[in-house]
Amino acid sequence: MKNTTVLLSTKVLRAFSVGFISIVLPLYLSSLGFSKLEVGLVFTLIIATSATFTMFSHRFAHFIGRRNSLMMFSFITAISSLIMFFTENAIVFVIFTLLSLISVNGTDIGPTFSLENAAFSDSAKGKNPKYFSIYNVFGGIAIAAGSLSVSLPDVYIKDFFLVLFSLSLLSGLLYLMLKGEKKENATKRIVIPEIDRKKINRLAELFSIDSFGGGFTLQAMIAYFFFIRFGLTESYLGYIFFFANVLVISSYFFSYHLSKRIGLVNTMVFTHLPSNVFLILIAFSPTAIIAVIFYLLRMSLAEMDVPPRQAYTMMVIRKRYRNKAAATTTAARMYTQSISPVISGQLMQVVSNGSPFLFGGSLKIIYDLLLFKSFRKIKTVSR
């Protein structure tokens, strides 16, 4: 099996898990009696824990190899999710939820994503931005299917943790098939040249602003918002997030063609900015129907920046520093995003249920403008 096929397969398995976990987790926490603030705090701790693993993922890859690191992270998720399924203790459940390295924002992000993204970039097909779109289309289809699975009748919410165990275990076994990884001298420290370090740090700073804003409106928090504001059940939420992800999948195709015409940075900015206007409008929606319409409009544009962002981050940095670039930018996004959910929960509790959308959307618009100013003239590198 070719590396590209392995990476697409594991992407699908992990993305399917992302699709259902970001819906069932807030509802399960609510069933345990967690308040809005406590739900937000749990999400903050989940993201912070995953960010810490992500920050050191390139070091794991350097010392034990990228393939072994990918296997390790998958098995950590598998073991944690199995304990989440069997435990009846809320504290134990939360502890292993933190260790599970799951994504609660409805998109695939974390230490596994970081290393896999770098591995895909190094593959023959990963050198073409077109294949980043295909890579994300596969993931988008899986996320949509995972979201829809929540709407299946006669399925207990807690059963999804057992599904997470099975998919994570299978992913870990699939990584065994990765080939051609070059062994590096584990004692040799890689010194990153200033020109690459500056690019990595600037991208990390900008992505941090975007993710801090995004942390106010994680998919898990949006599901929670629809649940407490309009009383929508998991069945309705499953359909809403399914259609949202269908729109995301469609947008990936347009993203590739648009980036060919106007460039990677322009595509990232000119699609992301209007999506954040729709995000803000959700806060002022008087009914569930209007809120869902604005949400779907937002999702039709919100992820069009993902393939060009992934491609640009890898292509603007020279090959041997891409593990570091992927780990640093991903961890920066996650650390700043980890701060937002607890603030979001507090805003819901003290100000209004819709206030996180206003705060998050405004910050993401600031990111769009700064990104355009900083990188519109910086070219990619071929090696």
Automatic annotation (TrEMBL):
Membrane-spanning ranges: 12-31, 37-56, 91-110, 131-148, 160-178, 207-230, 236-256, 277-297
GO molecular function: transmembrane transporter activity
Superkingdom, natural source: Archaea
Transmembrane in keyword set: yes
Record-linked InterPro entries: MFS, MFS_trans_sf
UniProtKB keywords: Membrane, Transmembrane, Transmembrane helix
Keyword Membrane included in the entry's annotation: yes
Protein's recorded name: MFS transporter
